[in-house]
Amino acid sequence: MRHLMPVHATHTPQLATKEKLVARLLFWFAAHARDLPWRRTSDPYAVWVSEIMLQQTQVKTVIPYWNRWMRKLPTIQSAAKASPAKLHKLWEGLGYYTRVRNLQKAARQMLAQHDGKFPENFAAVLALPGIGRYTAGAICSIAFDQPTPILDGNVIRVLTRLYGITTNPRAQKTNSRLWQLAGELVHHASRITHHVTGSRSIARAAGSKGADDPIRLMAIDHRRSPQPILGNCSALNQSLMELGALLCTPRSPDCAGCPVNQLCVARKQNLQEKLPKLAKPSKTTARRFIAFVVERNGRLLVRQRPAGTLNGHLWEFPNLETPAGATPRQLARTFFGRAPTKLEPLATLKHSITRYRITLEAFRAELPNAHPQPDGKWLTRGQLHKLAFTSAHKKILARIGAPSIVSARPIGRH
Ligand code: SF4
Q: What is the CA(341)–ligand 1 centre distance, in A?
């Protein structure tokens, strides 16, 4: 073990709590951070791509997408110049496709305004398309070790519990307070002169005997660390996200194993399961769609969704929303102008988009003389495989034997 440095002397009870919180979070993160591919780099482009992919999407879903993206489009320049078809194919299955279109717009803006480099100034990062306050804070802290706070769902949960905040965190006043608390913590981390982040073995060697032990910071020999040197702002912000993902989970948080349990107001007051106090989710609406799989001479009828609509640029089988009481046969007649000679069920798929709970029923339809719709195309299975499909229609494609990957539905970051 190398040198152990004591935490700064305390000044006021509030400051003492903040110091302990920051020290314990940094220490815990050094020992327990997951080894995620984007944590092996501090390249702002790579960090940015990971942050955009992780919006509304689970870590385990993002890993293969991020790896593939970084292999195919490793630089700002390559992302700026990629064709829309390539971009959408790389994003296929991640959902929320506006993210990938904004990503390219931002890459082009960096070429035009920042000499092809990722800007380091928070305001300039925030001015890029698709980047809000959270993402700008995450990039500036993780890639450049700046004391810029972050506040996403995980951090909101951790902070409301730690500080025992019982008002709605989405309400403006409470939300401002949370940003302020997140800012105070990361600023405090920026004033610590020793890096805490390093390899797990070094952190373990320092010996954490429990949350009540005096927390100490240690100087780390980074030459021995397999991971890049992370500054304390980067580590502190990531520790809050990591704590929310691994221990301070929405249900049944692992308070016994939590590094800050002695400082947590919610735990003291047994409120951890009740916080954060979010407003009730809006009512869900059920919607039903019918899709038709029509094949002729080994080619299938598909269409591309127009730009500017939900899932714009992606491909799908002909489909329409069903009015109450309409049968698939009636709908096929309305849609194709003639009744199918054969109609058989193929698959029923359920998925959610925002507040909509969607049921998609797919039918194989035989329509011997069907012409493509104005926006339709007859394509072979091999051609379909190269196109980017919406998640639900990709599953239909998988059912009819075209080679494909059944995509995961994004349901939140953990
Ligand atoms: S003690 Fe429990 S509720 Fe408090 S921060 Fe830790 S895991 Fe969350």
A: 62
4-268: CATH topology: Endonuclease III; domain 1 (1.10.340)
Q: For the chain, what percent of residues have pLDDT higher than 70?
A: 83
The CATH code that applies to domain 285-399 is 3.90.79.10
Domain layout of the chain by residue ranges? 4-268, 285-399
Read off the pLDDT band of 309 (50, 70, 90): confident
Indicate if the alpha-carbon torsion angle 231, 236, 239, 240 is positive or negative. Answer: negative
Higher pLDDT, 202 or 380: 380
21 Cβ closer than 6 Å to some ligand 1 atom:
no
Torsion angle, alpha carbons of 340, 342, 344, 350, to 10:
-10
Left, alpha or beta for 311 (phi > 0: left; psi -120 to 50: alpha)? left
Half-sphere exposure of 317 (CA within 13 A, CB side): 29
Please say if 92 is a catalytic residue.
no
The pLDDT of residue 275 is above 70: yes
